[in-house]
Amino acid sequence: MTDTFRAILVSKTDDGQKVEFVRLTEADLMEGNVTIDVAHSSVNYKDGLAITGKGPIIRRWPLIPGIDLAGTVRTSSHPQWKPGDKVVLGGWGVGEGHYGGFSEVARVNGDWLVPLPAGFSTADAMAVGVAGYTAMLCVMALEEQGVQPAQGEVLVTGAAGGVGSTAVAILSKLGFTVVAATGRPEEEAFLKGLGAASIIDRKELQGPVKPLAKARWAGVVDTVGSVMLANAISQVLPEGTVAATGLAGGMDLPTTVAPFILRGVKLVGVNSVTTPQPRRIACWQRIARDLDRSKLEALTTHVKLDDVPRVAADIVAGKTRGRVVVDVRG
Asked: Does the pLDDT at position 1 exceed 80?
């Protein structure tokens, strides 16, 4: 009998899509030169959109969602990897156009993989996941533009989400004064526990956008986009930097050139999907150094594969906080 494994499969239907748990074999997997026994994945905002159908994330049908995974190499014809290696994957269209992490076995391109960081379990790596990795890329972007703790407060929007909460934890450990913007005031204790110095209601960033508002932020990590990002840009101090990496509030950006030409504000886009491997590895090294493990644990919830459809609906509805790790084999 051929070995089978369990996966979540999303298929197109006449009136939308259906999500089901299926049993597959390796012959059902897509092309790739490394096959992985997946131990853990995580539920990200993109996964929520894919599973609920609330956003056009899925680019081929049917699809196994899950934009990140961590596990052990089963077989490999890639020169960098051998059976038994512990690996992490996030991005590269996995869970969007290529079968993803909500499966006990995955086959992928070995160029997409990075080694599991020393001292990390696969569960730890997925507590970081694409969201935490993206958060660190945002912090690196601010640093590379010269943003330093002494220059003033750093704003994090969507602060209770996966990217935002990890950014709060990293920035606070690095000595920044972090202001967390959230629409959930009940998360104040959670966010202050991660290191936020203060909390503001996201409504303060959702009003009409002024070309230039009172300058306040030395830097911004934005996970929301649209009006909130535009308002944040208008409030950045001269020569400050905004790292933009999300669109939970929309893809539009109703701003003007004023902050850029009158204050020298820099807007840096952070793409975590196709980041080259050397920068990925450098990013994971920074995560291992600059993300407090106790804070990582505090912002993480653990669920089983069976729970993923429910969690996907919750994350799109803004009902989750921090990171949600999936024990794929549990």
From this structure: no
